[in-house]
Amino acid sequence: MSAPLLIIQTGKPLPSLNRYGSLAHWIRVAAGVPARQTRVVDVSAGQPLPRLENLAGVVVSGSAAYVTDRAPWSEATATWLAEAVAAQLPVLGICYGHQLLAHALGGEVGFNPAGRESGTIALQLRAEAADDPLFAGLPATLPAHATHLQTVLTPPPGATVLAASARDNCQAFRVGPQAWGVQFHPEFATHHMRGYLRERAQCIARHGGDARQLVRQVHAAPQARHLLRRFIRQTRLAA
């Protein structure tokens, strides 16, 4: 058997979305990777991370937790991620995973000064994205699904920022040849996004938004979703 893709779960879906499976399942399906080629570790439930050897790559999920809480499982995962990047293992962090990767590599994470970002947003690619293995060839502006309160306030030293949005200056970054963080959710389909908006309606209202209007504005984000498959092509699964 070839080396598996490791999916690190840092949380669980909202209760109303449990019928769609785990966060790892959403990621695996969007990435187009068979179950037999993946290994799932739920670090938020205390499961230990494996040795770095014999892994094809790593994807880190989103979470309802905050990186700034410095939970022991989160800090241990950050240490492991720093070692993975140093070993040049392909890594992709999503939302919480994006923030945790930034924290692990010396960046700063905190609450977004612009407030909550929720719904189908417009990603604005920076010029640096033109030569990036994941983002090359994509339109300068493309839709993506997002739901978060915290963000990467300062990218890690040496990081290349690849994308921004109206409410977030660091929607994506790369460190080294093959470690990426994305604040948005490439694994989300429209039903995932609508479900999060409905569940987070009160928080969205506190930040001046209208969840019902945001639900109506949700639309497919196929190019952002396809980034997961582009990432898989950077891993040893594609070898």
From TrEMBL:
Keywords: Glutamine amidotransferase
One matching Pfam family: GATase
This protein's record includes keyword Protein biosynthesis: no
GO cellular component: cytosol
Residue ranges of every copy of the Glutamine amidotransferase domain listed in the record: 36-192
PROSITE patterns: GATASE_TYPE_1 (PS51273)
Top-level taxon: Bacteria
InterPro entries to which the protein is assigned, alphabetical: ChyE-like, Class_I_gatase-like, GATASE
PANTHER family in alphabetical order: GLUTAMINE AMIDOTRANSFERASE YLR126C-RELATED
Protein name: Glutamine amidotransferase
Species name: Stenotrophomonas koreensis
Lineage: Bacteria, Pseudomonadati, Pseudomonadota, Gammaproteobacteria, Lysobacterales
